[in-house]
Amino acid sequence: MNTVTGKTKGTEYWTQRISEQEMPALCSTVGTLEKLARDDKSSLSILGRSVMHDNALTARILRVVNSAIYSKGNTQITTVSRAAVILGFDCLRNICITAKLLSSLLENKNLSPKVYERLLKLMAQAFQAAVLAKMMLYEHDEEVQEQVFIAALLHHLGESAFWSSGGELTEQLDAELNKLIHVKDQHALIRKRLGTTFSQLSLGIAKNWGLGEVLIKSLTNPLEKTPETQSIFIANQLSEVLTQTEQDPERFEALIAQASEMLGVDAKKFRKKVIRCASATHKLVDAYDAKALGNYLPTEDSLKRITESEEDEKAQEADKLVRQNDASIELKKLKQLTRFTVAKTDFNLIITTALEGILDGVGVDRCGIWLVSPCRKKLQPRIVLGDDVETMKREFSVSLTELNNVFKQCLVKRENIWVNDPNSKTWRAKLGDYHRELVSPKGFVLCPLVVSDKVIGVYYADRVTTLRKFDDESFDSISHFAQLANVCLSVSTR
């Protein structure tokens, strides 16, 4: 496409042009995959043979299936056919389409720098939306998750395909769009220049290529009250906000509230999941060897800063008031523990007194002790006080077989540990994704539980409900309670 036509063409023209001239390889790949999907018996072996002639595509697919995101074991997958057996046809189909989409869109060397940058931003937004949409339906089966992933990824395929075609029209339209502020004016200009909208073009391609009912429904009726359509709609809205150069905290929070209400989930937990999706998206584009998109994706740290400042200010004020009220409780519990150091006292009474001092005196939302199992391979909750106790007792056991585990570090080194940011690079390596879901994003404190010079467990404390950060004074106070309780426990065993 090298010249500007004097006459706009419409959806049918652009759909045909993109299918036959601009992206014939992707169109052919999708067609092949759709035929294979209807032939369960031979689809796996034929799928492997159908992409073997494309070495670059095969290499990209194998890189993805062997990445941490999709790998289901320690065995390296060396063929596409084997990948289909292990991951399932639907999953591998989406990997094939995604890999071919990237090569079709991003390997055009004839785009102007500004148009190419627009395309990169759009593709980054699509990847972010796909990961978010899949996350929202984590309780559904894998087939549904794969359907919404690919539908969200291809939701703006018409627009992406247009910009990747290059030429004078793309450069002129890009320049004109940059001068317009209002979205309504931008849509009007696009319709005037192309004779269609990008949404209509995406729908035309989806129908022509047979890209699935989920994508078609999300384009024809984006507000339809089905889990699939809702997740795609919300994911695209959130992705648009998250990938902006200047992020809008108010709109972000409004979308979090809207999405959590529509999905029937807790807003705080949903926000945490959205923020963690940023890391997953970076890993995904790296796996596809599309690192250029990473420059236009948000990071976990940048997303946390959207809401942190206002929350921290409120939390600090609340913390001051709480500390004033709790000082007398802290002193009372310390005096009780001091009395226990000179007389044998029941184990549970010592621990409960110390935990009550930490909970109500220091001012945390929940705290407890985790004891080493008889086989010394696990830490298991024994006594927990505060918020969400049942969840902690039911779900928060810790394996001690991992080498670089912060809980194991507390036991082995017998040191008090203040994890100030579980999502930071420093602590993420010492705390798995599962446990980062359970702890407070504002941090937690661990202290060794020692009886007669033998480490038998850990004390744990966090502020998961109020989302207040710990400070030096709080850390010292928790450590003091733990050390004093350890002395009492040692006395009780003599």
Automatic annotation (TrEMBL):
This is Signal transduction protein with HDOD/GAF domains. InterPro entries: GAF, GAF-like_dom_sf, HDOD, RNase_Y/CdgJ. Residues 23-225 form the HDOD domain. Signal peptide: none annotated. It comes from the Bacteria. PROSITE patterns: HDOD (PS51833). It comes from Shewanella gelidii. It holds the Pfam family HDOD. Transmembrane segments: none annotated.
